[in-house]
UniProtKB/TrEMBL annotation:
SUPFAM superfamilies: Rhodanese/Cell cycle control phosphatase. Pfam families: Rhodanese. PROSITE patterns: RHODANESE_3 (PS50206). This is Rhodanese-like domain-containing protein. InterPro entries: GlpE_sulfurtransferase, Rhodanese-like_dom, Rhodanese-like_dom_sf.
Length: 102
């Protein structure tokens, strides 16, 4: 598992899977475009929804939960990393966000 920066995400392979692991109530501020929402507490149970052949970047509010999720996914055989600073850092940099899907 690596800690990646916002710049890393912006230049990442377009095939990367961005997984937003925040709770539903936290999504109102917006999400990274094309991110998939799977709350951190559901990640192990829903791991079959993810593609092991594609890199994963886990994102939460500040970086703590996504780090734990990336570690859990790595233990399951995924190539998973975490976004340093989470969505609070993304938002602070003024990077684009989209509304969560209903």
């Amino acid at each position: 598992m690596q800690e990646v920066t916002t710049a890393d995400i912006l230049t990442a392979d377009p095939d990367v899977q961005i997984i937003d692991v925040r709770e539903v109530a936290e999504l109102s501020t917006g999400m990274i475009e094309d991110a998939v929402h799977i709350p951190s507490g559901e990640i192990v149970a829903r791991a079959a929804e993810l593609d092991k052949s594609r890199r994963i970047i886990a994102v939460c509010h500040g970086g703590g939960r996504s780090g734990r999720v990336a570690e859990a996914l790595t233990a399951l055989g995924f190539n998973a990393d975490t976004l340093v600073g989470g969505m609070s850092g993304w938002e602070a940099e003024g990077l684009p966000m989209v509304p969560p899907e209903a």
